[in-house]
Amino acid sequence: MKIRLCVVGRMRQGPEAGLFHDYLDRFNRLGRGQGIGPAEVVEVETGKTPDPLQEARRLRRIIPGFARSIAMDERGRSMTSPEFAELLSRWNHEGCAHASILIGGVEGLHPDLRKSAGVVVSMGKMVWPHLLARVMVMEQLYRAASILAGNAYHRR
Fold first, then answer.
1. Residues 69-94: pLDDT tens digits?
2. Do the bridges between strand 2-8 and strand 98-103 make them parallel or antiparallel, or are there none, so unpaired?
3. In sequence order, what DSSP letters do the residues of 100-135 get, joined into one string?
4. What's the gap between Cα 55 and its chain centre?
5. How far apart are CA 65 and CA 67, in angstroms?
6. Selection from 64, 52, 82, 56 nearest residue 4 by Cα
7. Closest by alpha carbon to 39, among 75, 76, 67?
8. What is the model's pTM?
9. Which end of the chain is more exposed for a tag (fewer CB within 10 A), N or C?
10. How is the beta sheet containing 68-78 ordered, strand by strand?
């Protein structure tokens, strides 16, 4: 099952980009053996003024039409890392070829896009900077692959 991170905004060089790419490389190496991966990132531009409706339109254009999707949103449900791994594993075993993970802009995801997602997940009640949210999502993908592989990276 291929993973596409559909995100608003561009990630420039910096410490967040370094962490993100480290977890992306780790996930791509480990995830394939578990049937989840590779992952790719597709970014859409933000406007001069944040507009969740326009961002949602741009995001919809990069989501494969047959993909299952996970919207990252503070109003979503909290999941443990093993629950997240199980979700990905279940989708893979059900024959899902593509999964998209949606990360909105500074105003978050438009409500219609959030409602159309198969699953809405929260990273907690705190709001995180978008660059850190990307890193955290990528780390959780790597952690999910580690859990599914039975590696010691995730201690229960």
1. 999 999 999 999 999 999 999 999 99
2. parallel
3. EEEE-BTTB--HHHHHHSSEEEES-SS---HHHHHH
4. 16
5. 6
6. 64
7. 67
8. 0.93
9. C
10. 39-44, 2-8, 98-103, 68-78, 119-122
Is the bond preceding residue 111 a cis peptide, omega within 30 degrees? no
DSSP the chain: -EEEEEEES---SSHHHHHHHHHHHHHHHHHGGGT---EEEEEE---SS--HHHHHHHHHHHS-TT-EEEEEEEEEEE--HHHHHHHHHHHHHTT--EEEEEE-BTTB--HHHHHHSSEEEES-SS---HHHHHHHHHHHHHHHHHHHHT-TTS--
